Amino acid sequence: MFGTTDLALFAASGLLLNVTPGPDTMYILGRSATHGRRGGVVAALGIGAGCFIHIFAVALGLSALIAASATAFTLVKWVGAAYLIYVGIALLLTRPRTVELSPVRHATSLRTVFLQGFLTNALNPKVALFFLAFLPQFTAPDAANPTTGFLFLGLIFNCTGTLWNLLVAWSAAAFAERLRGSNDVALWLSRTAGALFVYFGVRLGASNE
Fold first, then answer.
1. Predicted TM-score (pTM) of this structure
2. Residues 83-93: pLDDT tens digits?
3. Could you tell me the end-to-end alpha-carbon distance of the chain, in angstroms, rounded to an integer?
4. Measuring CA to CA, how many Å separate 79 from each of 66, 107, 145, 150, 205?
């Protein structure tokens, strides 16, 4: 379909990759703890939106350009690393909600959660390189329009990933709500996620790949 091959294998491989914990999972866990189920869902949707940047970049050949240019890749890598560290520090300093926010403040907060999730994924150059290496393996060599195949495969990957992230958000929020008590559990989850985010950022910045 659309010049692709082994769709079942691709979907299974993509799902296994999606369930592997990484910065996206940690961000969703942190926001689910501090903002509840709605915050976790919005974070998952923001990450899914950021994934589309890489899908379109691969389809249009921009990721290949970044991969071929050491300067471009290094620049994107450092921007992504700095942003991961920034989000990690924000999670470390965030206090779980103790009272219901007003509609305006809550809407603003959710927009921020969505934007941070979007940028967390969009500014990670390793995601771009992953798509660049992974998607062509499931595209037929004689495909009439490889771009359509890339977009189709990327959509499948992002849909399965978003469904998994939504499950993570729901589960983390339910866990935090059940065991929160004096908000200690939510605070612990948020700070753990923040510390891991800082670690991911430092590791990305220090990597030579």
1. 0.72
2. 778 877 877 77
3. 33
4. 14, 27, 33, 26, 9
